[in-house]
Amino acid sequence: xxxxxxxxxxxxxxxxxxxxxxxxxxxxxxxxxxxxxxxxxxxxxxxxxxxxxxxxxxxxxxxxxxxxxxxxxxxxxxxxxxxxxxxxxxxxxxxxxxxxxxxxxxxxxxxxxxxxxxxxxxxxxxxxxxxxxxxxxxxxxxxxxxxxxxxxxxxxxxxxxxxxxxxxxxxxxxxxxxxxxxxxxxxxxxxxxxxxxxxxxxxxxxxxxxxxxxxxxxxxxxxxxxxxxxxxxxxxxxxxxxxxxxxxxxxxxxxxxxxxxxxxxxxxxxxxxxxxxxxxxxxxxxxxxxxxxxxxxxxxxxxxxxxxxxxxxxxxxxxxxxxxxxxxxxxxxxxxxxxxxxxxxxxxxxxxxxxxxxxxxxxxxxxxxxxxxxxxxxxxxxxxxxxxxxxxxxxxxxxxxxxxxxxxxxxxxxxxxxxxxxxxxxxxxxxxxxxxxxxxxxxxxxxxxxxxxxxxxxxxxxxxxxxxxxxxxxxxxxxxxxxxxxxxxxxxxxxxxxxxxxxxxxxxxxxxxxxxxxxxxxxxxxxxxxxxxxxxxxxxxxxxxxxxxxxxxxxxxxxxxxxxxxxxxxxxxxxxxxxxxxxxxxxxxxxxxxxxxxxxxx
Length: 602
Known about the structure:
Radius of gyration: 25 Å
Number of strands: 3
Structural class: mainly alpha
Strand content: under 5%
Helix content: 55-70%
């Protein structure tokens, strides 16, 4: 009997060894294991992404939360090689034998890997240090928002990550110089922005630095760490900020001071090496459709005119005239009732009002959905140290283990930018039923590889959020509120104008000022918001195209479903089909919708 048991154990170990080899190195027997291996391989190389997901931090599987992601050129090349190998392995599976969710996942991963392979000639055409989502501001945000401090070990890991700032920013310095040698230098205004930001951050007293204040606050709330240990941890944090953190910022400051005389005023992708083809690739990549910049530019012009006509009708209704959208909003914005008074506690009041709107939207949109996310959503202020150049609003996904809610960040740098007529639309976009519904519910999808739960295709994610803004009008939220409806249309005009200015900047050689003038005239947004938006498009070419293109595509899919399904069409079922397949390239989503329509038509 003992021999039989030992023999059986040996067979099991051999079988596990073969399976383990297939999962980690060879071709997995099960394609779902391949999809998991692809994600695991990418995640292992990206410790910051693992923390952002929050699935294994502070568990026995936590091998990463004391590390930062490599930012060197060599890391980029390794990623490109890894993706080429994954694409070759994927193509060794027989797509024709797959069906259901396996087929959808295959198509999604194939699209992603082929897009990554197509990007290889332009792997170093981006600007890792920029005024919008540059690493110099994103990394402190990551530390204060995503690194969870729950015990002594996680506190020590926080400090180790601070100590890694020096080597991380040395890698960034190498990456920036590598790009500059190839003719990829940020425009002068970008360099001016980031130098000012980095100098201010480095020159802060360590005790007033948000990296320290966040740590001190978190540590004070821990009952499982002795007081003498807390003192040592606080001292080590101050030391890391004064040494490794500030040294790292010094690397980047020195690098950008050297680049400053070499920078120019051209702001479009066309000015980069092979820039026109680079932008055509970005157009396909961000929209996940085979559209040209010329087609998108014309769509933008058409949408701007359509939305303008609807706006003018509402302005006429409330008695405001003017030659342009911007001129009419300027009149509306003179009404003090449209804004908050600058009084004590106003920031807390704004956040409370957003939360109240989210509660209302949960109830109002309930008939449109079969389910809602398990994760809660909170509204928080954008960290003050990044307010100047941060977007007006954005959303952070909840942790998959439930330890962190979804977070809707609102920029309160200037309360005069918080127009009350636009708040409901923003609540829908960032929270309910926009980003929070889509991104949080994607984490709950069962029976699919994890990559299907977390990968954020911008055209889908942002297209959905913009589509939900339109839903509010469809269900009568603005029926007796022309001001709120103007806020909705302003948000839609903003995304339509993006199609015009993004393609204008990067293909038609518009200047920064020309783009600012066009957006201000056609949206009526505050000039500060317009400037930061245009500067964002300059450093993130093509990304802004995804919003309106994604919305129009989802609307077209719904129109097609309503037409073909007739009385059997159920909007809640349609939304469930869109949401519970996770984010997909729009080309792949089209196939999913076609199958759903065919299966559910009378």
